[in-house]
Amino acid sequence: MKEKKEELVKEHNWKNKNQEYLYELQKLLDLIDNINDESLKISIRNQIIRFDRCLTKLAEEMVEE
What we know:
By secondary structure, the chain is mostly helical. The protein has helices at about 1-10, 15, 20-35, 40-65.
């Protein structure tokens, strides 16, 4: 069981294989694409990346415990 957890955490496979996560992320990115202000669009995308990185780290730490 521990090996499976480690494999899922490696390369963030746990979220990259989750269809609901991928669907919601794509939906969010599609909404961002409709923003006309290019600077705002870039700022929002960058913040989402930072948020996702933080959330991923937190989730993976919880799985490893």
